[in-house]
Design goal:
A hairpin with a 2-residue loop joins strand 1 and strand 2. By secondary structure, the protein is an all-alpha fold. A two-stranded antiparallel ribbon has the order 1-2. Helix 7 runs antiparallel to helix 8. It is elongated.
Length: 155
């Protein structure tokens, strides 16, 4: 990228360390920087790179107290719901269909954790749509997050 040329090689290497640590090569890093579509040239390219990569890392981290989304309990409950809709649980047909999982079955903390994680990972919204159906996914993640996941192509 021409906007990185005024910067020294060592400062650029330091600034690009997060991308290098991910295993990206020179061509991959150039493609990444090209995708940023800068309309101005920063005065200090290394400082700009450091700030931009830190912002991205902050967005990609999970919320504090967030434990494996979806949680094993949530996934197991979603599987039970799908089995109930099909009329069977663990491969055995039952006369009594269990109650389907709803947002009310999750604790407030679980809902908050799931929503905060879905902001950075639209794949969670897709999983909820696949496991629970779109109506329950919208109740869990809100209409806005489902729309955003559709716009990103995750659904």
């Amino acid at each position: 990228m021409s906007w990185t040329q005024p910067e020294g090689l060592r400062r650029l290497a330091y600034a690009l360390r997060p991308l290098i640590d991910q295993g990206l090569g020179a061509h991959d890093i150039a493609a990444e920087l090209h995708a940023w579509h800068l309309d101005r040239h920063p005065a200090s390219p290394a400082a700009y790179l450091i700030a931009r990569l830190r912002e991205r890392a902050a967005r990609e981290t999970t919320a504090p107290g967030h434990h494996g989304v979806p949680s094993p309990e949530f996934t197991a409950a979603a599987v039970r719901v799908r089995g109930a809709e099909a009329g069977c649980v663990t491969g055995v047909r039952t006369a009594r269909t269990p109650e389907p999982l709803t947002v009310e079955d999750l604790s407030r903390a679980e809902v908050i954790d799931l929503r905060s994680a879905a902001v950075t990972d639209p794949g969670l919204v897709r999983a909820a749509v696949d496991l629970l159906g779109e109506e329950q996914a919208r109740r869990l993640y809100t209409h806005r997050l489902v729309r955003q996941a559709r716009a990103r192509g995750a659904l």
